[in-house]
Design goal:
Blueprint (H helix, E strand, L loop, with lengths): L8 E7 L5 H14 L4 E7 L10 H16 L7 E11 L2 H13 L4 E5 L8 H6 L2 E4 L7 H19 L7
Parallel strand pairs: 1-2, 1-4, 3-4, 3-5
Bound molecules: S-adenosylmethionine.
């Protein structure tokens, strides 16, 4: 059944608690603005200790444990967009269009997933319907959360033909 974007539930699934105050403030601001347009929920799953000198195997284990926690938050009818450096690069207009299309085709649950300091497990990447990249650069996962929430807000403004800074 066709749905409007305002009927869509957007969930951001993140690994670890947000620590920096300036990021918290920015995310709260965009979440508040977004709430005028959609239901938005932010979920934080526990992170694993990830010391600098971990072996490949330990890193894999961290990803897998965090991945299981992420997967436990996803229902089978959720459309999942994983944030991944090697994913597709979309313009803001393309993200707006994709969200609009998902609403049009009755997808009312959309989850964006951001990995922890060592990234997302293969199981999460395989579960995802799309992999989205913001650039070839690696951003801290907490900063990506702020960039993502701003881009989702921008997408809603674009879809509503409302003015926003270019
Ligand atoms: C510190 S990065 C992890 C780096 C890890 N080596 C990897 O390759 O995924 C943490 C998370 O932030 C997100 N992220 C970081 N940079 C990104 C980018 N340029 N585009 C999309 N997501 C990004 C991804 O979800 C990633 O799992």
């Amino acid at each position: 059944m066709r749905k409007g974007l305002d009927e869509v539930n957007i969930t951001l699934i993140n690994v670890g608690k947000l620590k920096e105050k300036y990021l918290k403030q920015g995310i709260e601001e965009y979440t508040k603005r977004l709430n005028a347009y959609a239901n938005i929920q932010i979920i934080e799953v526990a992170d694993e200790k990830a010391p600098e000198n971990m072996s490949e195997l330990e890193m894999l284990q961290v990803k897998e444990k965090e991945g299981e926690r992420i997967l436990s938050k996803l229902s089978t009818d959720t459309y999942v967009i994983a944030l991944a450096i090697k994913g597709k690069k979309w313009s803001s207009e393309r993200l707006a269009k994709e969200l609009d299309n998902l609403a049009t085709y009755g997808k009312s649950k959309i989850a964006f997933v951001i990995g922890g300091s060592v990234g997302l497990s293969d199981a999460v990447l395989q579960r995802a319907d799309e992999h989205l990249s913001f650039s070839d650069m690696t951003f801290p996962h907490q900063l990506i959360r702020l960039i993502l929430v701003e881009q989702i807000y921008r997408a809603f403004r674009i879809n509503r033909n409302e003015p926003y800074h270019k």
